[in-house]
Design goal:
The chain is of the alpha+beta class. The chain has three helices and five strands. The structure holds zinc ion.
Length: 104
């Protein structure tokens, strides 16, 4: 029960819906990953927001979200880090690979 992500049949776009009332709402996301990223970033139940509040949050999320240069997943870069082209997972992975090159 709660907010779920409904994905297009061919694995494309995604929308949010309430599994209690079977009611879809909010923006159409580019993918399930985008919808999950938005829910994580939002950190509150989107059903508690009006359409207008949700729209405002969505555009706020879009403005702080980038796509990882390596895995293409959406992420919110930390301010002023050299990692702002890569998500945290890919950045850590790259750092580990670099450390292994330096200390074989
Ligand atoms: Zn990545």
């Amino acid at each position: 029960m709660g907010v779920q992500v409904l994905e297009e049949y061919n694995g494309g776009r995604a929308v949010l819906y309430c599994s209690t009332t079977d009611w879809a709402f909010g923006p159409v996301f580019a993918s399930t990953d985008h919808a999950q990223s938005f829910l994580t970033w939002l950190y509150t139940d989107p059903r508690g927001l009006t359409d207008s509040q949700l729209e405002s949050k969505y555009s706020q999320w879009q403005s702080v979200t980038k796509l990882c240069a390596f895995c293409s997943l959406p992420f919110q870069p930390a301010e002023a880090t050299s990692a702002d082209q890569l998500c945290e997972t890919c950045y850590d992975w790259q750092q580990q690979a670099r450390d292994m090159e330096v200390n074989p």
